[in-house]
Specification:
This protein is of the alpha/beta class and 468 residues long. It has 13 helices and twelve strands. This is Amidohydrolase.
Length: 468
């Protein structure tokens, strides 16, 4: 009974879900277009007898699987979108794309989402076997990369009745972090000018590209005057058609980040002023569009502690000689100082690594720390107490969003980390459904204190998914 049932049910589903994760890896899909991944996961859970709701709000590939009834209501989050331009063959230590310029699972969402399916499946089986009361949900969340799929789901209110939520992300170590990450906005600025012959009559033209470049100059001067930890990144997505034509249109895409929502919103306000000033200087017109918004993460120490306890109880992983060689070969492609820097970032010594991995679970960080990245898990964490952790699916210093990580996440090294994650979430869910229900109320009290009167602000009703 109990947690031994969880472990037995993890083993029962393991082979099928390892195959699912690698099938999703082999067919990477863009945000809001994850039709293969969503079908694989929906079919698996539907065949188990879970109730499936799809789509969610205006998001076609999102779905919710549910089993049970009554309280507590516990959610598990999954993702399955890939990244553009990071196609890569699996298990290689040299860059070799499957399809040049195509999408690739360089953030491991093939593992992330499938770990959630595994946790749900093992918990659902155990709830049936032991007749446990409560409601279990799996949220399949599209478009985490830049496009904030969970924001649309949150707008629909699907997280509002959750008592708590569990999620994970592939990484370089088995760890639960108490740190936060940045609030985020993705937006585009469009400038419209007047075309002219750039050599024959440039004085007749009003260059939209000049406006984009002046806006970017303004942004770069603005960097000195924003808060520490604030970030602005941009790419020009329309720069004109030919150098001998004064560009009548031009556009630039910006990401804006800051540790807190209000800080991020103030940077956005000042960035819009830069855009307006650039339009005045060039006698062009400017419009802008907000494509996504993500809240900063609200770490919950209470949830983290129970997640850490269960991460320590997960069945140890054994690697084959072939897997060890792959990890060693991948580590050898990095300079020693890069490995040392990556270890320092996490607060441990390279001597603690085995084949580039640190497998002993750790609980680290605090709410005063804010990482540079962003995730729409932050939106969920404003609504309900949320625990997020990592498992080692690639050796240090392999970084997410690189071809190296795509190579790792398509191998058995990656899927073995996924299995540990699924087991940790299932064990944690079991505790919360049974003898540790009091943890949920304590976690809710912590979230209420951290919010200090603040409430979650959904995205506007007229905001629609952006297809990159």
């Amino acid at each position: 009974m109990g947690k031994q049932n969880i472990k037995a049910n993890i083993a029962k589903h393991r082979e099928a879900l390892e195959k699912m994760a690698l099938d999703i890896w082999a067919k990477p899909e863009a945000g809001f277009r994850e039709f293969n991944a969503t079908k694989l996961q929906q079919d698996y859970l539907k065949n188990m007898g879970a109730k499936i709701t799809s789509p969610v709000d205006v998001v076609e590939t999102a779905f919710i699987a549910e089993y049970g009834s009554g309280k507590p209501i516990i959610g598990i989050l999954g993702e399955f979108d890939a990244l553009p331009g990071l196609s890569q063959k699996a298990g290689l230590t040299v860059q070799d794309p499957l399809e040049p310029g195509a999408y690739g699972h360089a953030c491991g969402h093939n593992l992330l989402g499938t770990a959630g399916v595994l946790a749900f499946a093992a918990l659902m089986d155990t709830m049936k076997e032991e007749n446990l009361p409560g409601t279990l949900r799996f949220y399949a969340c599209p478009a985490e990369e830049n496009l904030s799929g969970k924001s649309y789901m949150a707008r629909a209110g699907v997280f509002n009745d959750l008592d708590c939520c569990l999620t994970y992300h592939p990484g370089n170590q088995d760890a639960v972090s108490g740190g936060s990450n940045n609030a985020y906005t993705l937006m585009e600025f469009y400038f419209k000018g007047i075309p002219a012959h750039a050599g024959g009559a440039p004085w007749l033209g009003r260059s939209a590209l000049d406006a984009v470049e002046l806006m970017n100059v303004g942004c770069n001067y603005l960097r000195e005057h924003i808060i520490d930890g604030g970030r602005m990144h941009y790419i020009i997505i329309d720069g004109g058609m030919a150098p001998n034509i004064v560009p009548a249109t031009a556009a630039v895409r910006y990401s804006v980040r800051a540790p807190k929502m209000d800080q991020m919103q103030d940077i956005v306000r000042r960035l819009i002023l830069c855009a307006e000033g650039a339009a005045h200087m060039t006698e062009t017109t400017m419009t802008y569009s907000v494509k996504s918004v993500m809240h900063n993460m609200m770490p919950n120490y209470t949830m983290n502690e129970i997640m850490y306890e269960n991460l320590c109880q997960v069945t140890p992983t054994e690697f084959t000689d072939e897997e060890k060689k792959f990890m060693d070969d991948m580590v050898a492609t990095y300079a020693p100082e890069a490995i040392a820097a990556a270890c320092k970032q996490y607060g441990f010594s390279p001597a603690e690594l085995e084949h580039g991995m640190r497998m002993k679970p750790v609980l680290y960080g605090d709410k005063s720390q804010c990482g540079g990245g962003s995730t729409d898990v932050g939106d969920v964490s404003y609504i309900t107490p949320t625990a997020q952790f990592t498992t080692a699916c690639a050796p240090i210093p392999v970084s997410a969003h690189t071809w190296q990580s795509c190579s790792c996440y398509g191998t058995s090294v990656g899927t073995k980390g996924m299995i540990r994650a699924g087991e940790a979430m299932a064990l944690t869910g079991y505790d919360l459904f049974t003898d540790k229900k009091d943890v949920i109320e304590k976690a809710k009290e912590e979230l209420k204190a951290d919010l200090d009167g603040a409430t979650y602000t959904p995205i506007p009703d007229d905001m629609m998914p952006y297809y990159d």
